[in-house]
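User: Just a sanity check before I run the rest of the batch. Below are the structure tokens for the first item. I only need the designed sequence back.
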């Protein structure tokens, strides 16, 4: 039984100087599938994505492009929005960290944790990686370079303000012991061990990075880009005063990549504890895509552009592949061959073929044909398993359960030799098959919205969750209007 409730879901906000690739696209598709699923089941959904626009990296990229910082980010962010539109990402809000309201929210947040005695001034010295915007200890460096990206690091000493992260060790451990907070569970363990190993206070200001929000407690300092970025989850709801804050806080799921788990699963909860705000329910740390088993990087020139794939194969095909090819928490290797194999072997041969065959038979049966019978095929749909997977934020398993049903429906056509049936037997088979296609159109909708709508239109049916079972009166009552193939076979 699904209970109706509010559902607040977010993606990482991407650096405005990044060229977005299939890795970024995956986080947004995962969040979109969950947002659409929750809207479908009747929840009150708020879905946020956006752009992270401050910091040294952005400043450098703008300078390299010969542009003013703000013009540069305006230009880049337009491309983000275009990509999300092309991928049918149904976000309710696009938050930009250069918006006035966001900047005010960040300052208000800092003032609260300052009042709670969690900020102090000290000298900061450490190995700093510009690319990761992170200080590292000597021990953490890998061959003297940044352990995250392998780039050169430099010693930086400066006055800074610190957040008392260490003070929250006990409360964080207690919270981790009581809650299943980070998914997959082994990522929770990883974070638990790091917390248990001891937490150093973290610097939350920089005197030198001026493309940033001013630190409200000292006019010579600027707020560290990660604190600025995390507060987007609040400012997107209009915190502190917005009605959406009251309606949607706390977040139900933060979809992130495993690389930024520390910030979301340790730093962010501690900041929220300090500010007295409720903690998110779940952090979903997704795995990474490599390309033909190699790390994607500009220097290797193997960065996969989602727009090119959408142009070539459609948004739905890409959404399908990104979710179906690997579990959300796992790493996976992208290759165009594997993508084409799934299009031809599954989207064309399973789903497209089913819908085409069933509608051809229904149309052949004639305008006055009745599609009536007893529910045989509906029992093969493992609805409970599907709902449990979606509730457990395991959308890869959810999609697998739908696919199992699509295959059962094709099997039903073959085993009953539906094409050779007549009279009552044909009517019964088509009742089962048309109802199966109708239910599939609803279930597939969060994953492939255009395809779900196309199937529903061919059946004269609606995408409504309460209709997501075989009709109890034993009749299919849609109006058939067969269309073309849902997916084109790709020649290899
Ligand atoms: N701006 C920060 C996030 C702040 S959130 C408050 C940031 N941005 S980013 O542009 O570098 O993108 C981060 C996210 O992109 C990763 O966490 C991950 O979700 C996604 N990915 C980047 N490369 C990826 C892959 N190769 N594969 C899968 N996802 C990847 O960090």
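Assistant: Here's the designed sequence for the first item:
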């Amino acid at each position: 039984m699904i209970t109706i409730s509010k559902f607040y879901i977010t993606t990482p906000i991407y650096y405005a100087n990044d060229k977005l690739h299939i890795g970024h696209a995956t986080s947004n598709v995962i969040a979109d599938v969950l947002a659409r699923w929750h809207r479908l089941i009747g929840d009150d959904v708020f879905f946020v994505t956006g752009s992270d626009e401050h910091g040294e990296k952005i400043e450098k990229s703008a300078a390299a492009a010969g542009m003013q910082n703000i013009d540069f980010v305006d230009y880049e962010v337009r491309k983000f929005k275009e990509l999300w539109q092309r991928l049918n990402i149904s976000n309710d809000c696009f938050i930009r960290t250069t918006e006035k309201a966001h900047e005010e929210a960040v300052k208000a947040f800092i003032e609260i944790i300052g009042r709670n005695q969690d900020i102090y001034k000290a000298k900061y010295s450490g190995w700093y990686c510009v690319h990761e915007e992170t200080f590292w200890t000597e021990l953490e460096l890998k061959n003297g370079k940044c352990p995250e990206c392998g780039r050169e690091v430099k010693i930086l000493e400066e006055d800074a303000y610190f957040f008392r992260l260490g003070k929250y060790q006990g409360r964080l451990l207690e919270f981790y012991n009581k809650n299943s907070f980070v998914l997959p569970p082994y990522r929770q363990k990883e974070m638990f061990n790091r917390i248990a190993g001891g937490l150093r206070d973290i610097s939350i200001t920089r005197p030198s990075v001026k493309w940033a929000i001013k630190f409200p407690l000292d006019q010579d300092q600027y707020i560290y880009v990660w604190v600025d970025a995390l507060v987007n989850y609040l400012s997107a709801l209009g915190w502190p005063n917005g009605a959406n804050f009251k309606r949607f806080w706390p977040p139900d799921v933060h979809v992130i990549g495993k690389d930024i788990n520390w910030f979301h699963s340790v730093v962010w909860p501690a900041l929220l504890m300090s500010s007295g705000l409720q903690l998110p329910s779940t952090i979903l740390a997704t795995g990474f895509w490599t390309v033909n088993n190699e790390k994607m990087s500009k220097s290797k020139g193997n960065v996969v552009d989602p727009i090119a794939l959408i142009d070539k194969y459609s948004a739905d095909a890409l959404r399908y592949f990104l979710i179906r090819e690997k579990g959300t928490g796992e790493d996976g290797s992208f290759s165009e061959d594997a993508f084409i194999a799934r299009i031809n072997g599954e989207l064309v041969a399973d789903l497209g073929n089913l819908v085409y065959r069933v509608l051809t038979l229904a149309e052949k049966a004639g305008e006055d044909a009745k599609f009536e019978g007893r529910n045989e095929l509906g029992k093969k749909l493992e609805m409970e398993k599907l709902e449990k997977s979606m509730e457990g934020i395991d959308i890869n398993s959810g999609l697998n359960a739908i696919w199992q049903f699509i295959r059962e429906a094709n099997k039903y056509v073959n085993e009953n030799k539906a094409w050779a049936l007549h009279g009552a037997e044909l009517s019964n088979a088509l009742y089962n098959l048309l109802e199966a296609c109708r239910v599939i159109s609803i279930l597939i909708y969060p994953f492939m919205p255009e395809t779900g709508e196309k199937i529903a239109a061919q059946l004269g049916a609606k995408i409504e969750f309460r209709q997501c079972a075989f009709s109890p009166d034993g009749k299919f009552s849609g109006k058939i209007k067969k269309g073309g193939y849902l997916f084109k076979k790709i020649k290899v």
